[in-house]
Every structure is written in structure tokens, then in C-alpha cells.
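anyone else get weird line breaks when pasting these?? whatever heres mine. first is seq + C-alpha cells for prot A
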Amino acid sequence: MKYIICIISLLIALSTSGKAFAQVNIFACEPEWAALAKEIGGEYVSVTTATTAAQDVHFIRAKPSLLAAMRKADLVFCTGASLEIGWLPILIKKAGGPDVQQETIGWLMASDHVKKLGVPTQVDRSMGHVHPEGNPHVHLDPRHLIRIAEILEERLFLLDRDNQAYYAKNLSLFKSQWSSLLGMLDESAAPLKGQKVIVYHDGWAYLLNWLGLESVAALEPKPGLPPTPSHLESVLETVRGQDILGILVAPYENDKSAIWLKEKTGIPVLNLPYTVGGNNSVNTLSDLYSQSINILKGAL
């Protein structure tokens, strides 16, 4: 009798847990969106992160593991603005279901929902790797995250109506905490306003805009093109004698040219995390911004 009761209890548990843990499968192209998905979705989402901080998202292979993850996806959550143009369309075409195609509930491109910087009036190949829709690296301005979180919650609301109250509660908590965090970050970053920096790539535009920093030169001669000796010499002449805070380099960027310029000028190389996981101290979205500010302030 005791054995039969145990079996019945197990069957009931399995039947109820199946409903309780029927998670929404989210395919996140970048670590920042994976982190935000976990903030809002919590225990009711299962998140696959397609890339890491050590990878240049422009250049990713549509490998079998990503195809497998895409086949299960209920929501594709990426940056957009052509950042993933070299690989996401392949994954969608080969493995994406009808509910994660463009213009569906399951298709969420973060950059579609905020004002983008650097939207070109015209684009041609001579300009290098320029995004026609504007600079896609919108996550580097934390002020964008509340709006993007709201859109994410709306999509989860539609995909998983059984847990709408849970998502709404998480969103409310996130907005409250994020608003407080923004105030603290702005206060902490105040000494940085007006400082000059050199960038490797124009991916830092949103960070600079948020913090009031000024980019005086880029190590790339054109977006997406590696530094050349002649261009580096030109940068050297441009920055010589200027008071410059540092040379900003992301984890996936080769810092060889930045080190060369440091040796010539004494300007420090600042390895910023760029996204969640960008260094050992950046495990959350709040870590990303606070650590970036701390590294920049450390160069003052």
C-alpha cells in the first residue's frame, strides 16, 4: 500500500511539474540579451547564448549546435541592425520554425526598439563595414535596457500566458532596480565627462554618448578593417600631445596595435568588458556597466 501511494505521488508530481516547467526556449545571440532574458523570464525560460564576449559577433559560424538550439527556439532575441547578418539568416532559414521568422512574435531585435546612433545617409563598400540601419551596439547604453525589457516582457506575455503575472512582476522589479542603478552609475561616472579616448572600433559609440566621452581617433582605418602601419602613424600624429584617458579595447579585439600606440605615447590600454562575461568580474548586466566605469575612472 505504501509503495502504491509513493507511485501515485510520483505520477502526480510528474504531471504537474510538466506544466510548471514548460519553459519558453530563448535563442539569444549575445550574452547581454541572454542576461536580460533571465532577468525577466526567470525560471520559466531556457536560454541558449549563441556567442561569448571573446567572439566578434560579426563573424560567427552557423555551427550544428546553434542549428539545434534554433530548432527548439520559441523566441529569437538578438541585436539586429545587421550585426548578425553573416550567420543569423542562415540559422533561421535552415532551422527556424514559422514562429521565429521576421515580423513574428518570436522575432525580437533589440535595436529596433531604441534610437540608433550613426545612421548613415548613404552606404557603399568604400566606407568599410558600415551598418545601413545605424550603429548596432545599443546595449552599451544602459538607459536602453528598460525599454528593451518592456518589449521582451510583452513577447513572453504572448508566448506563455499561464505565467503572465510572473513576467510582469519580474519586469516591475527590474525597472525599479535599474532606475536606481542608473542614478548611481551616473553619479559615479560624473568625473569622466569630457574626457578624450581612442577606440579600436566604433562599437563604443553608445558608451561614449552615455558617459559624455569624446573619441578622437580609431585604430581601424575604416570600420571592420584591421589597423595598418600607415594609419597607426596617422593616429600617432593626431593624438600626440593630447590629454587622452585611454585606448578602449574589447575582449574580442586584437590589442597589438593598441599596445604599440601605448608604447609610443604612454596612453594606457583600457580593456573594457564590452558584455556580460567580458572579464572574470562581470557576471551580470549591472556588473558590465559598473566595471566599465571603474576601469575608466582608474585611468584618470
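and prot B, same format (seq, then C-alpha cells)
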Amino acid sequence: MARLNLWRWGVFGLAGLYFLVPLAASVVFTVDVPGQGLTADAYTQILSTGGFGSSLLLSLELALATIAVVLLLMVPAMVALRLGAPKLRPVVEVVCSLPLVVPPIAFVAGIVTVLKWGPEHLSRTPLFQTFVAIQNPDFPVVLVLAYVVMALPFVYRALDAGLRAIDVPTLVEAARSCGASWPQALVQAVLPNLRGALLNASFLTLALVLGEFTVAQLLGFQPFAVWIVNVSGSQAQLSVAVSVMSLLVTWLLLLVLAGFGGRSRTTSRG
């Protein structure tokens, strides 16, 4: 038993070094300026740098929209799958896993082809304005649609794990026997028991949107990840400082999520 614990702590220690050493090196790079010594200018200049606020706000808006759309699509679909068509689960799983095997370059190439094809063939129809509207730089809906597809594997796994932990047919049947409609049964009986799964899916989607670079860059938009790369060409320390802060905020959100999920499980057991 002692040997097993020693091995476990050794693995955790190596994993910690794997993550913490590059992070520490990045922090040192941002605060150690040759000829000036230690300084925090790279961090104090973040808020005043041009494009920081607008790019971060855009990424957060895209993340919230993506979370809303993907959950509105996946939650009813997966509940219906559990209730009425469990044999279709392997098919849905394969479809939701496809974004993992499609290279982002090929995915963007397909999107660009559709965006070029639409205006050329639909210029005299009302759909032409739709193609123009979804490419609005202030809020590119096309990025939301792309991120929804990219988030499907992670959202599916999170929701599937949550649904496996509860008896969905019994919950829905009990709610229906009390006079609830199907939407009420979903909202009042199923969703409260999926709180942890919904939080996990939302967090994974948020992390995906905040860190995604390839699709946004190739489509010509500038959310937060693209802004960091663009700034790195002229202000390397600033870009690394922003990356460090983003990573720390992401870890903080993960810890808050884990703590909230733990409290929810404790409350439900009590």
C-alpha cells in the first residue's frame, strides 16, 4: 500500500512539473527585463493595450452564444435519445465525434467554400443577406456555428456521463404523472439532476472558444486568441503575460467548477 501511494505521488509530482515548469518559465520571461531587473509592466499594460478589451469581449460573447446553442441542441436530443431511441445512441455518438477526426484546415476550407458559393448563387434571393449577416465582424455568427460543431464531442461526453448517472425515464414519468408537460418535465425534473454535466459541458465549450485560433484566423476575424498571436509579433512579453493570465483564470474556473460540483453532490447526498 505504501509503495502504491509512493508511486501515485511520484506520478502526480511528474505531472505537476510538466505543467508548472513551462508556466514558471513563462512568468519569469514576462517579469525579467534585461537591464531593468524584475518588473510587472507586462501585466499592468494588458488593460491599456489596443484591442484587448474588444477581442476578449468578442470571445466571451461567442462563448456564451455557443454554449446556449449547443446545449439547446444537445440536451433535448440526448434526453429524447434516452427515452425513445436508445438504439440510435451509437449513431449519435459517431456523428458527434466526427469533429475530432476532421482537421481544422479542412473544416475551414469547407466553411469558406460555402460562404463563397452562397453569394454567387443566391445573390437574388433573401438568403444573400443571411450570408452577409453571419459574417458581421462585430459578431460573426459563422464562428458560433463553427464552434458549436467543434464543441459537439466534448458536450456529448459530458452530457452522456450525466445522463448515465440518473434514471431519466423514471424522472420523466414521475413528472408527467404529476401533471407536468414534456418541457416542464425536462426543465424541472431532468435538468436539476444534470447540473454537474451542464457545468462541465459549458466549461469545456468556454475553454474551446477562448483558445481557438485556426478557424477564426483563417476566416479573418479577431477574437481573443487571434489578438494574442498578433500582439506577440511586436510585444512578446505582453502576449505571454496575457497567455499566463488566461491560463490562470481558466484554472481558477476549473477549481470553482470542481468545488461547486462537490458541494452539489454533498447536498444531494444529505
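btw re prot B: The mean pLDDT is 83. The CA atoms of residues 94 and 200 lie 21 Å apart.
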